[in-house]
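Something for you to look into today, if you have time. Could you write out one complete protein record for me, on any chain you like? The space below this message is yours for that.
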Amino acid sequence: MASTQTPKQSTNHIMMMEPVDFYANPQTMATNSYQHTNPADISEVNDKAVAEVRAFRDLLVENGVVVTTALGQKECPDDTYCNNWISTHENNRMVLYPMLAANRRTERRPDLIKILKHMYTDVQDFTLHEQNDKFLEATGALCMDRVNRIAYHARSQRSHDDLAKMWCEMNDYKLISFDTDYQGKPVYHTDVVMWVGTELAGICSECLKNDDVVKHLKHRREVVEFTNEQMAAFCGNSLEVIGKHGERMLVMPAAGYNLLRDDQKEIISLHYKTIISPEIPTIEYYGGGSARCMLLELY
């Protein structure tokens, strides 16, 4: 169904999850090339992750972003990556998604869903597709050009073609699917490969099996291209947010931003005066995801 409300590419309101039991999730390692195994003593891993989440939250708030924080739960090592089980949209819509790892499905907590339903009364629920081993992990799987209603989709075990097509049909989006290869396997999430802002998009072109998606992006935006090495530092796991006085800002993790060349930084600086660069090494090393994965956009 076509939207009646003008879509915005980015939002001023973000939800984050503070973990209570963070560690490297063994159920996700087979598909995630960026994870590392747990240390012998994991007692400090969660404490370091909590400190990183709080410092990241404070950076956002200092720059005028509204942040709603929820507390995670035991035996949910990845629940700080809260953009993987839900997305929100204009016209009070939210979508719930099927997830590959069994221990990640408990992140779809009834108490949080109940709260969000006060704001998002139109609910699309794809979760039953888990029974057929079909998965689509929210804005991890679909990188959305919300203004032009285009969904970019990197195929992987966590992002099924059939569900991506169904999602686009139900939400009046055009689907652009593509294939990637990094260390002999597909990149597990689209939001590791690329991001889309209002005027600028970023993408790791080195991991693409063809450059059609880059050409498509360039029809509508300036594009900054990354290498595999830069993607491994999560420069592709970035998100445009809205701060003070409506300023558009880019969240890019410090590890990724620090690996950019001067010419890449110059392109980004033409579009964003403010770069929010959180230091989240524990979350990146053991979780295999970074800044964008930690931000659930509330529209």
